[in-house]
Amino acid sequence: MTLSEEDYIKAIYHLSKDEQKGVSTNAIAAQMDTKASSVTDMIKRLAEKKVVHYKKYQGARLTEEGKAYAAKIIRKHRLWEFFLVEKLNFSWDEVHDIAEELEHIKSDKLIEKLDTFLDYPRIDPHGDPIPDSNGNIKKVEKTLLSSIKKGKKGIVVGVKDSSSEFLRYLDKLNIALGEEITVLNKEPFDNSVLIKLNDSEINISAMTANNIFLKTN
Amino acid sequence: MTLSEEDYIKAIYHLSKDEQKGVSTNAIAAQMDTKASSVTDMIKRLAEKKVVHYKKYQGARLTEEGKAYAAKIIRKHRLWEFFLVEKLNFSWDEVHDIAEELEHIKSDKLIEKLDTFLDYPRIDPHGDPIPDSNGNIKKVEKTLLSSIKKGKKGIVVGVKDSSSEFLRYLDKLNIALGEEITVLNKEPFDNSVLIKLNDSEINISAMTANNIFLKTN
DNA sequence: AATAATTTTTAGACAAATCTAAAAATTTGT
DNA sequence: ACAAATTTTTAGATTTGTCTAAAAATTATT
């Protein structure tokens, strides 16, 4: 599988989480920052390689083989992210782009040895689950901060947007994985949320609240 | 710089150690396992990028910029090899191919943090020096076992051939970096060498002796 | 020094991955 | 339901890195 093919497989995998039907050509083009015509070409190639099902005008859908391949790439991505943060002392906003490259390194033995070295982590630096060596992904129980009721609280367990801009903003707010957040009030006007964090009260926008995952008990 | 361009730069670098003049098209083709015509094309591209000097029929020669680039790739390659052996417990015959992929990962910050994590190693698992962050390579003092006089001894500090076949053969002979070897006799008929290693005497072929580096005092 | 052998370069083709522009199919709006 | 809008596909071109075959230059031989 080429680098580009792997990127497409990953994109289709991520897009099909929300989607029941096939993932649309345009959606893939947007995700991959390319043109619809390029996507059509690539989907055909991937269909020949049996990693996607493809019928004209019906979008793309990963085969079982395709899903397993995607899980493997995601496993590699997240294990490398964990390595970069825990062993090399990168911060959580710096690791995505480097892991995008490292995830394409081929050796299976490498990734199993890395997993052992890291002591089999289950969660990456952004709170996302690391698939096991069989490609199984443990679903993490989590709720968007934006949909938590006034008065309720939870622990930060993940982010939806893991762009470095957003992560650096969270750093500035002192919001990190493991922090406890209590929803003090929700403003109906703009859906902003007043929260308590470390005994201080801060107001966060609807957009921000919509990108933070909490675990409630 | 693309992956392929980086591979050519590295090949030219390694070939120009023995060579005073430009490295010939054919020599590069052999090293890269490709055709001379492909090499000519690539050399022209590299010349446009100012990493090699090129005049028709005169072979290729790295510019200062090209040499610095090569040193950087080699630094990455050897640091990753050290990581694979020391942290992930790979054996010395398994790491070359994986490092060939890892050496192309772009981030400068990654390689500096890796260097720190590994505590600034100077020598890779095959005894080759790791260039520092400025691209300077410390020359290691070493002599081929094949050219050591009868009765003299030395410490194994490197190998010339680092193919996994050769390295596994050395494992079988219990020859590893740091071992002391004494040359007991040299057979004029086939240039084989009788050595003492850990109180046992073994006979090694001229070819083997020609791929082991010793440090003599 | 002329010819033969070898090396290197050029010319033209090809596959992968992309693009633009236009055609075809599907979906939407009234 | 049918025209308009949108989405998707096709057709043809481009770039990178490769190839084969043939031409040009260099090196070796007698």
Structural summary, described in words:
Two copies of one chain form a homodimer. The first copy, chain A, is of the alpha+beta class and 217 residues long. The first copy, chain A, folds into three domains: 3-62, Arc Repressor Mutant, subunit A, CATH 1.10.10; 72-140, Winged helix-like DNA-binding domain superfamily/Winged helix DNA-binding domain (Arc Repressor Mutant, subunit A); 143-215, Roll (SH3 type barrels), CATH 2.30.30. The first copy, chain A, contains eight helices and eight strands, in the order H-H-H-E-E-H-H-H-E-E-H-E-E-E-H-E. In chain A, the strands form two sheets. A six-stranded antiparallel beta sheet of chain A has the order 3-8-4-5-6-7. The first copy, chain A, has a two-stranded antiparallel ribbon with strand order 1-2. In chain A, strand 1 (52-54) and strand 2 form a beta hairpin. At the A-B interface, helix 5 and helix 6 of A face helix 5 and helix 6 of B. Chain A binds a DNA duplex (30 and 30 nucleotides) through helix 3.
Domain count of chain A, please report it. 3
Report the average pLDDT across residues of chain A: 95
CATH topology of the largest domain in chain A: the name is SH3 type barrels
Oligomer: homodimer
* CATH architectural name of the largest domain in chain A: Roll
CA radius of gyration of chain A is 19 Å
Q: How many DSSP-defined strands of chain A?
A: 8
Q: Characterize the overall form of chain A.
A: globular
Order of helices and strands of chain A: HHHEEHHHEEHEEEHE
Beginning-to-end CA distance, first to last residue of chain A: 43 Å
* Structural class by secondary-structure content of chain A: alpha+beta
- For the record, the CATH class of the largest domain in chain A is Mainly Beta
Helix content of chain A: 40-55%
Strand order of the largest sheet of chain A: 3-8-4-5-6-7
Number of discrete helical segments of chain A: 8
Percent strand of chain A equals 15-25%
Q: Which blocks of ≥5 consecutive residues of chain A have pLDDT under 50? A: none
